[in-house]
Amino acid sequence: MWRAVFQTALLFLAPFAAYALFHLLQLRWPFVRELWQGRILSLLTIAGLVVAIVGMVTLGLTRLNQGVYVPAHMENGKLKPGRFE
């Protein structure tokens, strides 16, 4: 569960990191308040949401062919881990 939340958060933050890296490569300090005004922040938020949604959909579609999940269970007194069949 935490892995899915962490991956989605990283996907959301990717445009912000790219924007900061862009300013670093242009030899500007990226953490100046004037560079993070309303319009830029709004565009980065929308881009982050789009990237996160596309990433989650892609992840969901690529995991469709794994089969049926069998949860962890006890069998003959031994714990069998969960798996896909």
TrEMBL record:
The keyword Transmembrane helix applies. InterPro entries: DUF6111. Keywords: Membrane, Transmembrane, Transmembrane helix. Pfam families: DUF6111. The chain crosses the membrane at residues 36-61. This is DUF6111 family protein. It comes from Methylocystis borbori. The lineage of its organism: Bacteria, Pseudomonadati, Pseudomonadota, Alphaproteobacteria, Hyphomicrobiales.
